[in-house]
Amino acid sequence: MSKRTDFSFWQSFFPTFGIFSNAFATNANSVFNRIAVFCDDLKSQHMTIMKNALIALGSIAILSFTFSFTIPDNRILGRWNKIQKTPNGPLELVFVFRADSTYDGIVNGKAFINGKYFIKNDTMSVSDNGCNIAYYGTYRLKYFAQDSLSFTAISDTCKERYEGAHGLRVKKMQKK
Fold first, then answer.
1. Strand 110-120 to 169-172 pairing
2. Residues 76-111 pLDDT 10s
3. Which of 62, 83, 114, 154 could form a disulfide with 138 if both were Cys (CB 3.0 to 4.6 A apart)?
4. Residue 134 pLDDT
5. DSSP 126
């Protein structure tokens, strides 16, 4: 950053005032030198502030980008069950949710259904081989009591899946 040290143009601007013009030019030169130094200091401070602001904004942008990708909700992974009382005796339902977005449904120890699921926030989209695998139902998930989960239908065109899943409450099974 260059500092201005010569304001001799004042002498050429006021040539008719003789010695007064030299004194004025010297004072003007001194004043403008001080102003130039002050401006350079301000510019230096401004550049430091701008540099710090850019670093802060850059950091915020990087953090925002990093956290914009949703961290997968892994609470659903594992085995969930429900013992349901029926006129023919208890019916044990077990659902196994895997990290690869697939799941199995097991009834009384026998494979009953399998399909795919996707979760975004508290909403699950699910398809299975009991209905057309291309049709997805959408359910609201509600975790409660640290180990329990309920499903509430938002929309589902598969009547059988809707009847089986809407209002279903399951409990997380302990790992063996």
1. unpaired
2. 999 999 998 889 899 999 999 999 999 999 999 999
3. 154
4. 87
5. E
Q: How far is CA 45 from the centre of its chain?
A: 34
Residue 72: other Cβ atoms inside 10 A: 12
120 within 8 A of 135, measured Cβ to Cβ = no
How long a stretch of residues is the chain?
176
Inter-CA distances, 172 with 81, 103, 153, Å: 7, 14, 20
The answer to whether 14 touches 24, Cβ cutoff 8 Å, is yes
Sequence ranges of the domains in the chain: 9-68, 74-172
Find the radius of gyration of the CA atoms of the chain: 37
Measured distance CA(108)–CA(83) in Å, rounded? 9
Indicate the fold that domain 74-172 takes in CATH.
Lipocalin (2.40.128)
* Separation between Cα atoms, residue 2 and residue 138, nearest integer Å: 67
In degrees and rounded to multiples of 5, residue 141 shows phi and psi of -100, 140
